[in-house]
Amino acid sequence: MKKRFLMTICLALGILLAGPSLGPVGAADEVLIGNASSLTGTAAQYGISTYEGLEVAMEEINAAGGILGKKIRILKGDDSGDPRQAVNVVQKFITKDKVLVIIGAELTGTTRVTAPISNSAGMVQFTASATGAGLTDNLPFMFRNSLPEAYAVPFVVQAGKKKFNLGSVVMITSYNLDYSVDLTKIYEKALGAAGIKIQDKISYAEGDIDFSAQVSKLKALKPEAVVMTGYYQESAQLMIEMRKQGIHCPILGSNGFNDPKILDLAGKAMEGSIWASGFFPDNPDPKVRKFVAKVQEKYKKKPNQFHAQAYDAMWIIAEAIKRAGVTESTAENRIKIRDALARTTGFVGVSGTHTFKPGKGDAEKSVFILTLKTEKYALLD
Amino acid sequence: MLAQQLLNGLTLGSTYALVALGFTLVFGILGMINFAHGEIFMLGAYMALLLVTVGKLSIFWSLLGAMVGTAILGMIIERVSFRPLRKVSILAPLISTIGLSIFLRSLAQIIFGAESTRFPVGIKTAFYQLGPFQISLLQIVILAISFSLMAIFQIFIKKTKIGKAMRATSESLYTAGLLGIPVNRIIFLSFAVASALGGVAGVLLGLNFNAISPLMGKMVGLKGLTIIILGGMGNITGAMVGGLFLGFVEVLSVGYLTSSYRDAVAFALMFLVLLIRPTGLFGRVVR
Q1: What is the pLDDT of residues B179-189, one digit of tens each?
Q2: Which residues of A touch B (CB under 8 A)?
Q3: In chain B, what residues touch A245 (CB-CB under 8 Å)?
Q4: Checking CA distances to A271, which of A333, A340, B123, B160 falls within 20 to 30 Å?
Q5: Residue A345, domain CATH
Q6: ipTM of the prediction
Q7: A2 part of a folded domain
Q8: What residues have CB less than 8 Å from A241, skipping those under 6 apart?
Q9: How do the domains of chain B map onto residue ranges?
């Protein structure tokens, strides 16, 4: 009796699990776009924001009649920010779901491992968030409209040099985080070019909760300024601890500083930070105001850079598909879409103007230098 | 800088020690590891957060509330994950607590979100200069609470009737039962005490670092486990000394070596200690 019951359960589970795997999920009147993203895990905040941005753009495009008369549908694929899972998600999109374009992955680490897979399958992959160095190099099917750190960091260093008259900095790195290690190298190069010395380097590990030792060490160094290269959680913790131990020097930050969550966590401790952004939510541009209002109404939150870039990415892709004039996911069609996408010039989105130069997958776009004023994001004077 | 680092180590170590005490208490009595202990630590912090933000209670009452809450949680865990499996095999409760720990962590992620949450301080950030030490009021409060809890726990386990019964049970479950000790109730209680200590540690850590996250129990749980191996499995003094030891080693290796080697240094030192004393610092040789 018990055995039979177990068998039934196994069978039921089997059916449940096997159900959705029968062939591609797309209907003929849909444009299927896969979003490989970190919807759970430590980077969930980024992934959720990106998805929301995509959704807003999708609704606008579909409301205006879709692409070539077909409605867009986004397939969610959660990789938890884990490169191994990201590989599975992207492979599923390519082989099983047969999507037209993949948007993602969310992070530098997950994008680095998935981009070559999409590329060899001849499928366009477009990340609206990953900013690590060289992610699109030698991969003709890989694109991004995020602000690559290598592009943005020199602007931050120059702004810091001008504003704070810096002679040296102390670098803080999360030594087991791809993103942070990459960014540290980029900063080293930009600092070198600007003639700013690196006084010392301090590191911590992902998931650390205690930063008191690092900060005491930092305090003894009496830094002119600090460069933080980690994600927002650890950066916020470091700021709080720094201010607690009485270090009030400026902080040159990373892309993670664009997530308003860092402000929620760090509050006043964030004052004195500067960083680059592809999006400024208080921008008076009517296009930006309209977008901000839409996100605020739909999700009850203020959009961040991830929302904005994802929104722009969806529009850039939609226009490219329209220009290519194809919606079925065949090898030739996907090449047409790639070529159309690569010819995007002067696309004006909510995160600035985008242009793809020949042979480059990174969009050239505007950079805003932001800081914190009375606990609000503001443009640096 | 050394003085400041020692103080950092003491604060961190005292939190570790509280976590390890809970671990070692359960191990001492049952000979089993409660892998969900790290999650109790995390949930303690979230309970206090809710009491402060939603319940509008002072941090003192929130701390007490979190203690009671985690004690109840501990008792539920004992009932659900340990008692039904205790007699089956030694591995069954181990696996069930691993499952429970994943469940609690995911549950916390669903309820509170995956990201860190700011922990309201409630204690003003005043600093005092004591010789070479710059100590904050917050650190004083944390040290006072953790060391007095450790002292109270020592008295409880050595002098009170229940404490004695716990020690007897840890000597031999069977014999204690024969001698008329209500073994099941004692195990139940020790889970409550162990979890309350873990919960307090979570609140103190949240207070100290201003932020808590659903994932913070994972590493702390692992460290707690390492500490009790270092201190001697089931040994109470060992857990406290081991906790402080780990706190100091971590902080000093960050301060004077490369921070990237912190965990490597901490774990290598533990390995060395165990090579010299395989039973741990305070462990007894089991014949």
Answers
A1: 999 999 999 99
A2: 40-42, 44-45, 175-176, 202-205, 207, 209-214, 216-217, 219-220, 233, 236-237, 240-241, 244-246, 261, 264-265, 267
A3: 4, 134
A4: B123
A5: 3.40.50.2300
A6: 0.76
A7: no
A8: A211, A212, A214, A215, B209
A9: 11-244
